[in-house]
Design brief:
Elements lengths: L3 E4 L5 H12 L9 H8 L11 E5 L2 E15 L4 E12 L8 H15 L4 E5 L2 H4 L5 E2 L5 E2 L5 E2 L2 E5 L10 E4 L8 H8 L11 H10 L2 E2 L2 H7 L1
Parallel strand pairs: 7-10
Antiparallel strand pairs: 1-2, 2-3, 3-4, 3-10, 5-9, 6-9, 8-11
Helix pairs in contact: 1-2
């Protein structure tokens, strides 16, 4: 299979949104709204167009990855620019064939050249630990509430960047979109059945799961 990894163009927009909808439909909830996120991200101030890539086979787009600006904020308010990716998707018929790995690998190398110290995402550890991601707790990186969600994942790009400094990760506000707007946007697409499936229950468990810092636990006992 000959896979072409290239930058997304304006002509790809509708195809990428169709692909994203197909990849995420009923995965985390009945239906999905990740295709709406693609739509609004492209015109957002935090969108990084030079990291917006698609995977193509025989002229058909079968994978996509999009990036946005994020920040690390230390306890003494030092602010360090980083990046996050998402949505990342692969068409169901092409999953588990290395397409997602190719998209991550291509864009990761570009981020390294930009001298960005880390990529931070919220995702399923089963999908991303194989790419070198670790939970934020291993790098003293929490969410803005000082917690360590199971899905807060960090890929260190500058060896030794993370040490004793405690950081909080702040992603773009593009992810805080209005659900009603997403529902309305979905009406532009062909109607699909919204179903309940077990992956949605797994997702609910994951987003309610947090890791505890052993040092904090010891100090409080």
């Amino acid at each position: 299979m000959n896979v072409n990894i290239r930058l997304e163009t304006e002509d790809d927009y509708s195809r990428v949104e169709e692909l994203t909808r197909e990849a995420f439909w009923n995965l985390y909830a009945p239906g999905c709204d990740e295709h709406y996120l693609c739509h609004i991200l492209r015109n957002h101030k935090d969108f990084i167009s030079e990291l917006d890539y698609v995977a193509e086979v025989d002229g058909s787009i079968i994978g996509s990855i999009m990036y946005s600006k994020s920040f690390l904020i230390s306890d003494d308010f030092e602010k360090v620019p980083i990046v996050s990716f998402g949505p990342l998707c692969v068409h169901p018929e092409y999953q588990r064939k290395g397409i997602g790995t190719a998209l991550i690998g291509k864009t990761k190398s570009l981020v390294e050249k930009m001298e960005i110290p880390a990529i931070i995402i919220y995702g399923d550890p089963h999908n991303y630990c194989k790419h070198g991601f670790k939970n934020g707790i291993d790098y003293n990186v929490s969410n803005m509430d000082g917690e360590f969600p199971l899905g807060l994942l960090v890929l260190e790009l500058k060896p030794g960047f993370f040490g004793i400094t405690k950081w909080k990760a702040r992603q773009s506000d593009v992810f805080k979109y209005n659900q009603e707007d997403a529902i309305e946007y979905d009406k532009k697409f062909k109607e699909k059945d919204k179903n309940v499936q077990y992956s949605q229950e797994i997702f609910k468990i994951q987003i309610r799961s947090f890791l505890k810092d052993k040092q904090l636990t010891t100090a409080s006992t």
